[in-house]
Specification:
This protein has 2 domains: 12-147 and 155-167, Rossmann fold (3-Layer(aba) Sandwich); 180-252, no CATH class. The radius of gyration is 27 Å and the shape is elongated. The strands form 3 sheets. The chain has a 4-stranded mixed sheet. It has a two-stranded antiparallel sheet with strand order 2-3. Helix 1 packs parallel to helix 4, helix 3 runs parallel beside helix 4 and helix 4 packs parallel to helix 5 (121-132). The protein is built from 7 helices and 8 strands. It is α+β, with helices and mostly antiparallel strands and 260 residues long. Strand 7 and strand 8 (223-224) form a beta hairpin. Helix content is 26%, strand content 16%. It has helices spanning 9-18, 36-39, 49-60, 88-105, 121-132, 181-184, 236-243, and strands at 64-69, 77-78, 83-84, 106-116, 137-144, 160-167, 216-217, 223-224.
Length: 260
């Protein structure tokens, strides 16, 4: 697997192991906000984040189901509480030990979500491949950060950033939200299909499909071909299987208006 090489890389791999484990010292009870009972199960830690993560290891190693971090993007900007202008190799050396400890905190069915932009995103992806394992990469989530273009942009006006998602194990699957009545309301069952409500879909693939170029002959002998540059979304063999699905057709050759 390809890896990154940078100045002080070998030393960066030893930082987490050489960082001492500090004991967390609680503040006075007067600093508890909100529901006091709920607050007992939560921690707000002030201090160096690497030292804080090492302090959590004895209690939470392998127990954390979900981790979200918003690290410095290294945008060459100066903010009130930190300088976001590290030399590239310094930024990598800063990220590596923290990712190593975060991996140790993850539960076997846990996941980590990391926000980033183009300044360091491509390097962070390779670094996380090495720390978490390339097989544990789940997806790159795109999130919109602007509603309109910036007229002051010298080249392109970027309107999105990224979120890299990794799991602790390759068989991780997300816990999906339950379907809502609003989501179900778009389905109906005008033909009383015993399999339940359904929704007619576009027969065309959203990208070129090697098996999606063929001519279909309908029950009346009429031929159907995809328009120029388009492709059927299923192969001819799969289409025949759908059309002959027992007594209940799953492929509608000419849907009446009430089906559309």
């Amino acid at each position: 697997m390809p890896t990154l090489d940078w100045l002080d890389r070998q030393a960066a791999f030893q930082v987490a192991a050489h960082t001492p484990t500090h004991v967390l010292r609680p503040h006075a009870a007067g600093h508890i906000y909100g529901d006091a009972a709920a607050a007992r199960d939560n921690l707000l830690i002030q201090g160096d984040n690497l030292q804080a993560l090492k302090a959590l290891l004895p209690f939470y190693r392998g127990r954390v189901k979900c981790i979200f971090i918003d690290p410095p993007y290294n945008t060459k900007s100066a903010f009130e509480h930190y300088d976001d202008n590290l030399e590239h190799s310094q930024w990598l050396s800063m990220m590596l030990p923290r990712l190593q400890v975060l991996r140790e905190l993850l539960h076997e069915d846990g996941s980590i979500w990391v926000t980033i932009d183009d300044n360091e995103g491509h390097y962070l992806k390779v670094l996380m491949d090495e720390v978490f394992g390339r097989a544990n990469f789940v997806d790159t989530v795109i999130w919109q950060k602007a509603d309109s273009p910036r007229n002051s942009a010298r080249q392109f006006s970027s309107d999105h950033d990224y979120m890299f998602v990794y799991s602790r194990a390759p068989d991780w699957v997300p816990i999906k939200l339950e379907r809502t009545e609003e989501a179900n309301s778009i389905y109906s069952n005008p033909d009383d299909d015993e399999r339940g409500p359904w929704l007619p879909g576009d027969p065309y693939a959203n990208k070129p499909y090697s098996k999606g170029q063929y001519t279909m002959i309908g029950p009346t002998g009429r031929s159907f071909s995809p328009p120029p540059g388009r492709f059927w979304r299923v192969s001819e063999q799969k289409l025949r299987e759908l059309d002959q699905d027992g007594a209940l057709c799953r492929f509608v050759w000419n849907a009446p208006a009430s089906f559309r």
